[in-house]
Amino acid sequence: MTTLVHHHLENSVTLFPKKIALIHGTRRLSYSKINKASNQLAHFLIHTGVIPGDRVVLLMDNCAEYVMAYYAILKAGAIAVPLSSDLKPTRIMFLMEELTPVAIISSGKYRPLFQACELKKSHLKVMIFNHSKKPDSPCNPLYTSWETALENKKTTNPELLLAPSDLASIIYTSGSSGKPKGVMLSHQNITANTASICQYLALDHRDVQMVVLPFFYVMGKSLLNTLFRVSGTVVLNNKFAFPAQVISEMIKEKVTLFSGVPSTYAHLIHRSPLKASRDQLTSLRCCTQAGGHMPGAMKRQLQQALPKHTDICIMYGATEASARLTWLPPHYLESRINSIGKAIPGVRIKILDDAGREVPPGETGELVATGNNIMQGYWKDESTTKKALDHHGYHTGDEGYMDEEGFIFLEGRKDSLIKVGGHRISPQEVEDALMETGLLMEVVVLGKADAFLGHRLVAIGVAKDKTTPARKILACCSELLPKYKLPGEIRLVRQLPKNANGKINKQGCEKLL
Asked: Would you say the pTM of this structure is higher than 0.90?
């Protein structure tokens, strides 16, 4: 029975010990090999003094060692804390003080980052670095190489007495709309959401998932957990900047599933040979999208670029929900192209007004979710936890409505409406209209302070054709929106600032104003 997250791996070892679980470049690792290494590392951590409930920081690019380390931390009863690869030393130092981790597992690439942090090592028991070119330093006794950590002869599952309610992970939000928060997820939260995703996507051991999203991002980690739950195969590709290589590997490895955020698909549609290669993607059965709103125009472009047999599954979720909250079954894509679908199995979503009353179909309110996948709260942040969790459930902060048949439509964040003159405008609506012109790859709409209007709308976008003038885009958009919703200015750039998880960084975009 899968009650703990690492049972995904251990159950697959029992069923398919020799099956290839992970492909990364020329490396092909079986379930038994990954489990053996995870057990060796778990026993090393336990021997070092790591006990259940301790925090262990994990900072690596996607690789086999990341997978081994992730499951090893859980097997040792500790809490895995994956960190973003684009963090600066000052942020690392703050997180180390907030988390007081007992161990850090990273790669040689990030060793200088930790050295620059001047970490307070009173709580640290060990720092393990993989592929570190520098030898272990005698003046830094905490440093241990990956090879040394795996010298442990014990290869059996540790079998600690852990409960489903125990914390499995603390995942920090990207902070695109404020200060990053440490989302506390229990084993039950993650396994419940994983089981639900496997159910509605009908995943099984024959599936091969291409992963281009980082594992520190909750969506990337859910891809790992879902495929390992069903004994499938995960193909890691960290070269999305070279999309032709990604497409080539998808064909070679007979990938059945691909997943991305909106910018991932914008890149595939406009900067890759996806459409030219679609006849060769004979195994690709489904592309899933989450990580933010994807305009209807982009969904239609993706349909045209993919093989006819490939489904597109739109999903909506949050780190606080262990990943997923809703999904739109592919056969509804045409008729409900702007919908995020319905609640996934095991989740209930209500649309509530400011007084906490459920609103009737068609009326706008806040999406509030309940289910076993909902977080335990924010790490060391009781006040923010109380705002997000109450007797109604998890308050997503997203506004939308539900139609008569139960399909949900998002209208934007509660705090994202921009006041222009006497109007409150949803930037998402304006972004959708700009994308409908067919002249942009992607766009973000922001409010710039204005002495007369309060704010004026400014769009920052990437044009498909570098020669397209901004005035042409604005003229086309004027046919789709009333005058008061039109951006006062459109600035065209080569690319929009992105977070390490591929999502548009609005704070970075605001610096372009």
From this structure: yes
